[in-house]
Write a structure and sequence with these properties.
This protein has 167 residues and is mainly alpha-helical. It contains six helices and two strands. The chain is elongated and about 95 Å long.
């Protein structure tokens, strides 16, 4: 009787210790935060678009093409791992188009309102650039591009204040 009683007590004691530790891991069932999950195919496509946008921006000075590629990434993959660089290229391209710099005419940037297409004015490009750079400064404070974005924003009159409805 004593031989079966001692192992039974050890087994019960181990079970009492083991059950709460298993229950403490209940949060692991939920998995990762959905806002951080990245689709590998979408990430690969976005990285390709970033490389093309960077090439247009730095080498070719084709700011319309760089802006279009950047907007495609922002719209299609807002959780992209390098979104801060995309926002920087979009903001800087917009500011360059506002100043009519580069090899492409700002009139090549066309947006559609229903069936009507229209181009943006220099002031609209400036506002668009300010929006992108403000988002970069506010949402990504540790970014390598923040310093340059802040310098450009100070020339434009500081970043836009955060809207109350957005987080």
């Amino acid at each position: 009787m004593k031989r079966t009683f001692l192992p039974l007590i050890v087994l019960v004691f181990a079970f009492v210790i083991w059950v709460p530790t298993v229950g403490a891991q209940g949060g692991a069932k939920k998995g990762p935060d959905p806002s951080t999950i990245r689709d590998p195919d979408l990430e690969k496509d976005s990285l390709h678009n970033l490389e093309v946008a960077r090439n247009y921006f730095k080498l070719k000075k084709a700011y319309v093409a760089a802006l279009k590629r950047s907007e495609e990434i922002i719209a299609g993959n807002p959780n992209f791992s390098r979104i801060e660089e995309v926002l920087f290229i979009a903001g800087e391209s917009s500011l360059s188009l506002a100043e009519k710099k580069g090899k492409q005419s700002p009139s090549l940037y066309v947006s559609y309102d229903g069936n009507t297409k229209h181009t943006l004015t220099s002031e609209q490009f400036r506002e668009m650039g300010r929006d992108y750079l403000t988002r970069l400064v506010n949402d990504y404070p540790q970014s390598n591009f923040r310093k340059q974005a802040q310098e450009d924003l100070s020339a434009l009159g500081e970043p836009k204040p955060k809207e109350q409805g957005k987080q």
